[in-house]
Every structure is written in structure tokens, then in C-alpha cells.
């Protein structure tokens, strides 16, 4: 058990991806659309948390709602692979027990985060991929959908755009790492990453993290990013909980989530010092772009990103809620 002081104030933090979300091109309708979505999700997902519910339930609920919202690149609205298919990844971790579950390359589960939770709670494993993950989750009650449930016109245009522009066969793109000509492009969609995630602390001071993504537009079939890798795009222990968004390969190579926890545990760094080190010092050295949300066991929250913006929000109580897109 942790020797640290336990927080008595529940907090939920969410993100909907980071990237070059240009302040210039964002119109007020789009801004409101994203901000309202973040606020609604924070309010709904935190209801039980504020009544004594667990951090693990709060992050599951928040990520499920983010997956259901087509504005974000996870669940319904996920990006396309190079072969016009969808392969989704998700992970969840309970910091109080270090129990963890993840799924990768799933194409027929409505909410990959719930499947990750089933892996954590109902199997003796941590990670299941592909058909095995789908069969296991469905067997344990996960909702099955046909793959086109995830498809949206907007993401299809993104794929067509990257392929039409003569990008080489090895080119991939972070969610919106391509300009689209869509009228309903919510923001400057250049380089936006749309992975979603949540971290929380509950009344008992327990921490949890969850992350879910459609991955990269035009990714190779079979590619797995950082989001379902415990210790990279998702991590929680008794000190902190972290959920990442960004260039997955760089986040895997830096083992971002665990690196932050290790800096705190072995280097006595604060959550802010450790997170800033990874996002502003280490990632740029390997051309990594993105951000993360994190919370420590005292209730300190950080939301650093090295891109122009990151969709993010925090709720401390029903009356005390904050959402932002840019550095504001
Ligand atoms: N990190 C995700 C991945 O590489 C992408 C993202 O954050 O948008 O799959």
C-alpha cells in the first residue's frame, strides 16, 4: 500500500487528442461544439465519482463516452487504415492494484475500452489482440458491431486526402495530419491527434487511467501504437495516472507513462517536473509530438502538450469544471 497522503477530493481529467489546432482557423461554432462535448462528458462521467464511486469506473465511463462521440478518433469516428478498415486500440489501468487490461487491433467491438476492462477483470492476461480479443470480449458481454459502425464521412475524406496527395506507401498520419477540404472540418485539422483518454482520483485516493484510439490515418494493417501499451500511452500506480496522445511510436520508445512514474519514484521529481521533461525535452529529441494528462496522489493535475493545442478538461465538482483547447 502507498505510504503517501491520500486525497479526499475526487477529480476527473479527460483529453480528446492534441495537435496543430490553429487558433486562427477555429470558428466559434466549432470551438463550442468541442467544448460542449468535453463539458458534457466530464459532467456525466464524474457523477458517480463525486458520490464515492471509484476512479476506475470514472475513467471507463469517460472514455466510453468519448468513444461514442464522432468528434474524436476512438470508437465511432475512428480513422481508417491503409486498406479502409478500422483497427482500434485501448487500455485501462487501476493504480490501486496495478491491474491492467488492453486490447489492440479490434474492429468489431463498439467500445474497446470496455473490452480492455474485461481483459483486466475477467482474464488472467493483460493484453489481447485481434480476433482473440474480440471473441473473448463478446463472450463476456461486450457489444459487437459491424466495422462500418466506426466509419464517418469525415475520416474517409482524410484517408482519401492522404492517399490522393501522393504520399508514399509508407506515409501515415496522426488523425488529422492532413488538411481536408471538408466544410465541417471542426478546427484547423492539420496535425490534430484525436486519441482520447481519462485519468482520475477517487475519494479513497485511488488513481486510474484509460486511453482509446483509432490510431493513425493510413496506418499499416497490423500497426499498434502506444495507446494500448501499458507503461507507454496508459499507466497508473499509487503515485500517478497518465494518458497520452501523440505520435505513438515516439511514446512507445520513451515508455512515457512509466517514465513519468519512475522519475517521481526514483528521482523524487514532481508530476509536473517529470511530465514537462518527457513532453518538452525528451519527445522533441526524437521528433515526438503530442501531449498527456496526468494526476498524482495528492490531486495535482498536469496537461502538457508540445503541439499547438490539445482538447482537454478537468472537473473538481459539479460547479468547478474547466475545458480548453489552446494554451489558455
Ligand atoms: N497515440 C496514437 C497512436 O499512435 C495516436 C493519437 O494520439 O492520435 O496510435
UniProtKB/TrEMBL annotation:
CDD domains: Asparaginase_2
Molecular functions (GO terms): hydrolase activity, acting on carbon-nitrogen (but not peptide) bonds, in linear amides; peptidase activity
UniProt KW Protease keyword: yes
A Gene Ontology biological process term: proteolysis
Keyword Glycoprotein in record: no
Keywords assigned by UniProt, alphabetized: Autocatalytic cleavage, Hydrolase, Protease
InterPro entries noted in UniProt: Ntn_hydrolases_N (IPR029055), Peptidase_T2 (IPR000246)
Protein name: Isoaspartyl peptidase
